[in-house]
Design a protein that fits this description.
Strand order of the largest sheet: 3-2-1-4-5-7-10
Number of helices: 8
Shape: globular
Radius of gyration: 18 Å
Structural class: alpha/beta
Length: 280
Amino acid sequence: MKIVVTGARGKLGTAAVAYARQQGADVLEVDLVPYRIGDGPLGQYISADLSDLGQVYDVLDGADAVIHLAAIVSQRLVPSARTFQANTAITWNIFEAAARLNVPRVVSASSIQVNSTVTPRTPLRYEYLPLDEDHPVSPQDDYGMSKWVGEHLATMFTHHWGLSAVSFRFPWIATEDEFRELPLREEPRPEAALYAYVHIQDAARACYLAATATLPPRSHTVLFAAAPDSYLDMPAREYAQIAFPEAVIRPELTGYSSLVSSARAATIIGFRAERVLRPN
């Protein structure tokens, strides 16, 4: 199986490449970073500008799946218009090329920030917690909006071109070093994206599962992939009542459990986080 990973030199991209290769996949790494001596055999890594549709056609040709992680990864790294335009244009190009080249599966990184931005302009509000994929979304900035548009692009291309897609609303992705510093002890903040997290190895595995799972054609599936617990050192219900008093607290929110539900990912692609702070 040939999998193309965009953003292959980024935080999650590096882990996703390594995990897919461990499973025996033929992986083509794609990133804007130039090829360097020692980067491996020719044909395993290509430096490409994904804002150029022609280059996207080149790197996706012959792929069985694309794990699309290339993006400006947060707000306020560059001017907001550039973040929005770059992320949406690149995602359009990925789906355009995949559809016309008959690549059957696109997995892309959306973000919890379509629901829970870290730079809110108006107070964050939730109808209920834990958050799931059916909750109404309300992006408030360039980054979150670019990810929501990416989800709509996935819906359009899957419904009208026949491929299948998975969009992950990832929470904070913790590296091994970051993971060792948890749980976090601080005064709870509403804008902390619900203190949800996923270990980078679990996020990489989720990408591979989504790229290889049996899914119906013309389907777009939005999934959360989070650890089952919170990285805040405060019981989940207590935090929710302090930060979001208007939200309905559902019975499953107990102990230090996550305020984000990954139940749908468990059902559809068999994902359950393995690297967690508080194992059952």
